[in-house]
Amino acid sequence: MAEPQPTLNLTNTPKPRTRGPKNPKATWVPPLDWAAEHGPVSGAISAATGAGALALLGAATHMPPGIPLAVGAAGAIGHGIGASVRRRLTGRTMATRAASWLLAGGWTTWAIATGPLSWVAAGTLAALGVGIGAMAADAAIREEAVELERMSAEARDAARKMNGEREAIAREWADRIRRVTGIEVAVFAVEFWKTGAGFSLAAELPGGSATWDRIAGAARALATDARLPLGCTVGVEEGDRQGRVILDIATVNVMAGAYPYPDDYSELSILTGIPWGLLPNSELVDVFLREACALVLGPPGSGKSTFLDSVLAGFARCTDVITWVVDLKAGAVGIPWVRPWLEAQGLKAPKPGTDPAPAGTRPGVDWLASTPTEALRMFRAVIAINKARQQQYQDLLDANDTTLLPVSAKLPQIMVVMDEGAELLSARSFGDPVMKELQELVGKTMRTTRAMGIRLVLTAVDGNVSALGDTSVRKFSPVGAALTSGESSGNNLAKLFPSARVDTRQLTAKGCGVIGAAGADGFAPTGFKGWKTSPSMVREAVLATNARRPHLDQVSARAAGEDYARRWDADHAGWLWEGTTIADTDSPGAGTARAAGTGGGLNLGSLRATAPAAQDTADGLAEIIAFPNARPAGLNLSSLRGQTPAPAPAPAAPSGPEWLAEAIDAIESAGHMGLKVAAIADFVNRDRKTVRNGLQAAAARGELVYRENGPLSVFVHPDHA
In this structure, which topology does domain 627-720 adopt according to CATH? Predict the structure, then answer.
């Protein structure tokens, strides 16, 4: 890389001088500063008035006439020549300064000898001043022109050095491409990345059978031939027209670092792009979701939950987005985004050493569903909102001459984020009407709500059709991200981007992956690095964006009905604060909480003083109804017979091969959807037969539950079975 060039001073203004300490014993010595600055006018006035004053003083005191001439000669030598040479000024400036001193000294000598108080003396003094000013102005113009020329020369020199470096890189990589691929290319442009992490080059192909994808197929070999650091890849894509190829060569391994989410919660818009991570050149990768759904694939341990925090943070920063979250694993993804609101309501105690969130804090997500029943309410509201917007915003669409709803802070887009949402679509409903209707409404939302500003972000562990339900999930999700750090074979990349040629073996650090987007705002699949998030970062994001997060428009709120209006009531969201210590029972909203100490899970009326509504009981049993083949361990309904249930024994540590504990943790994190043998085998890097035998043995010991369903059979943790 070229070294940075020094900044040029175009104004010729000297740097301010530092004043030293005063010496009381030398205060009578006049300072001689030959570098003192004057402009053409001030310099001429100073010279004329100085000469006139000195002539009057000399005539009055009978000064020898030769003294002013001697002073003028000294000034010509010191200021006109010495200072000009030291400051590298032009010869014209040097001559102007020397002549000014000599003319002023000569006139003063003549005036003392003949008398300064005459019209001749006054006229010649005025002419002297005008002449000095004209000379100084001309010298200043010349000085500026010379300095600009000097600057251009330095810039040309820097460009020559830069061009020399570019030419060397162009020759080197043209030779490398010919050596590795056998294709003769002509590199015509080299651009260094602003971040200093690498460079890009553009080349012309020779024609014939040479195509850019032949070079893309040799990207790994090119990186090896260049001896790039581990983690640095060569990205290859087609140029601005056919017959051209662009190579992005990383020289710094950005993917290996850990980067916290930027401390920047400034305003964003769904219309101008939302950052989801870092490209290999350290620049932001922006996604555009006004018309697009997104699909995120990531095996357990790949950083998918952390990535979702970045997604939710981007939506929270948008002034024209409302976020709804569905997470059937006890709402884990959305809970940190709701906690500040719970603190403000007095339903949760703040973290020790942290002040509670201020009054007026709103939930960081507008709706959170943790059960199939609540998710069904949400998607019924989505379909109702879509219909209402189509009917009641026709005048707005006509006024803007568009078929796409013009989203804004007053009419926000609704983004529904579903963790493991893609797998929900493939889950067998087993006759459960709630799951069946929910699956239908999710698919209908993807197909029909684009124009009215409702889109989804879904995640999945695997990209197989058996895991996604059908190909429509990928079809309606032009934005895709495949997290690669938790897999060994790059399967999700091939399933999400079949034609992409990205070396995922270089993207093994947690949070790494491949991201791409189709359409007018899209970009070719490329490696990226997700940010590291934490509960404290989520809290900061919620509080920083609290005042500007939009509210649902009235038309949509009316269409969503009671389910939306009561989404934070105790019978809908009480699970968020059940079984926790309430900080202040007199705080606003505390009265809506259920009694502290009542556990989550099944809602069995016999365990409470008052029986719950029948609908609540049905909600609690939804999981058991949905999967009748499951055999959950430790389920004891003896309280329904008036008996006191025995305490559940503490779970024993899993026995078996060393990888089994890691596999069981991954299955537990997958929730009630469970994991297939193939996904677990990829995660623990073992063959499928070995993994299947180990998991079946664990299921026989009660450490796992095997949910048999043909090719969709999965292993589920007992806590989620």
Answer: Arc Repressor Mutant, subunit A (1.10.10)
Domain range 293-591, CATH architecture: 3-Layer(aba) Sandwich (3.40)
Residue 542 phi, psi dihedral angles, 5° rounding:
-65, -45
Residues of the chain with CATH 1.10.10.10: 627-720
Residue type, 465: V
Tens-digit pLDDT profile for residues 298-329:
887 788 889 999 999 999 999 999 999 999 88
In the chain, CATH 3.40.50 sits at: 293-591
What distance in Å separates the CA atoms of residue 305 and residue 162, rounded to the nearest whole number? 44
Encoded tokens for 29: 């010595």
pLDDT digits (tens, 9 = 90+) for 85-132: 666 666 667 777 667 776 776 777 777 767 777 777 667 767 776 777
- Confidence class of residue 423 from pLDDT cuts 50, 70 and 90? low
Amino acid in the structure at residue 447: R
Q: Using an 8 Å Cβ cutoff, are 326 and 417 in contact? A: yes
What does the DSSP assignment read for 173-233? HHHHHHHHH----EEEEEEE-TTSSEEEEEEE--STT--HHHHHTTHHHHHHHTTPPTT--
The pLDDT tens digits for 511-551 are: 888 999 987 778 888 889 999 999 999 999 999 999 999 99
| SS3 at position 335 | helix
Q: In angstroms, what CA-CA distances link 441 with 376, 386, 457, 478? A: 8, 12, 15, 20
The answer to whether the CB of 715 falls within 8 A of the CB of 660 is no
pTM of the model: 0.62
